[in-house]
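Project outcomes to date are best conveyed with an example. Our students and postdoctoral researchers have been running inverse folding experiments weekly, and each run begins with a structure described purely in tokens. The record below, which covers 257 residues, was selected by the lab manager from last quarter's runs and is presented without edits.
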């Protein structure tokens, strides 16, 4: 299928690893232009060596000055879509959290996404077209053990995106969420290590426990996720709006997963 993304401009956050990088590789393969945003300059430079046509921007998406840099980078160009993606809060059980952890989780998971949306959406609405794709977590459908901060804050993002998609429907801009399950990413490796420490068992056993929770009995690959992301960023997805779609290998057991 031709996704018709040639020369279309996208912003992708969390660009240098995991799901963000996989989405960039998919978009580049489709001929799209990409502004890659991440916190580590060295990793961005390495990514640009592989994909010479991309543009890079170093910074933390939760910082307001980075938002301004993004807008300057776009300039007067037509922005087709944005992948709103970044890392999550640290893993911990509920009773281990402090109020400061919740304050930080709001900043790292939700606040900057609202700010970025408010900055980009008027440009898309004026153009009559746009795709905003938020990368959250399978925890929007069922809680993930020892990730209470993510479980709570990502549900808040879901409520925000759903409400906004209803309010601006009909303007040519769609907002959707992809909720990844267990994929082979650095974030997932950190979760394996944390659970290994908490339970006092080997990381190998933890990996098997996580794999066995899915119906396909395996951890996903980032490219499995990126293929659907690219489709949702294309014109073909015009009738999908305000949805939270899990890519989880059958992890969610509920019928609404």
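After processing, the design step wrote out the following sequence:
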């Amino acid at each position: 299928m031709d996704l018709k993304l040639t020369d279309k401009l996208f912003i992708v956050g969390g660009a240098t690893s995991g799901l963000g990088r996989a989405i960039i590789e998919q978009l580049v393969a489709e001929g799209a232009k990409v502004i890659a945003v991440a916190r580590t300059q060295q990793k961005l430079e390495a990514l640009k060596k592989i994909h010479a046509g991309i543009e890079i921007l170093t910074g933390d998406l939760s910082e307001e000055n980075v938002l301004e840099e993004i807008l300057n980078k776009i300039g007067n160009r037509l922005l087709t879509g944005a992948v709103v993606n970044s890392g999550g809060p640290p893993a911990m059980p509920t009773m281990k959290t402090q109020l400061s952890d919740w304050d930080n989780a709001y900043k790292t998971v939700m606040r900057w996404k609202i700010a970025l949306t408010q900055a980009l959406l008027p440009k898309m609405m004026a153009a009559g077209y746009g795709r905003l794709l938020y990368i959250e977590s399978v925890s929007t459908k069922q809680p993930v053990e020892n990730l209470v901060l993510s479980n709570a804050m990502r549900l808040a993002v879901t409520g925000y995106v759903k409400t906004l998609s209803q309010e601006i429907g009909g303007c040519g801009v769609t907002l959707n969420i992809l909720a990844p399950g267990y994929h082979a990413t650095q974030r997932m490796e950190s979760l394996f290590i944390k659970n290994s420490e908490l339970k006092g068992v080997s990381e190998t056993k933890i990996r098997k426990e996580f794999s066995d929770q899915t119906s396909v009995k395996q951890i996903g690959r980032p490219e499995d996720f990126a293929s659907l992301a690219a489709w949702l960023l294309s014109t073909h997805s015009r009738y999908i709006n305000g949805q939270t779609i899990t890519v989880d290998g059958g992890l969610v057991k509920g019928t609404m997963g």
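The longest helix spans residues 99-127. Residues 9-181+222-246 form a domain with the Rossmann fold fold (CATH 3.40.50.720). The training component of this project remains on track.
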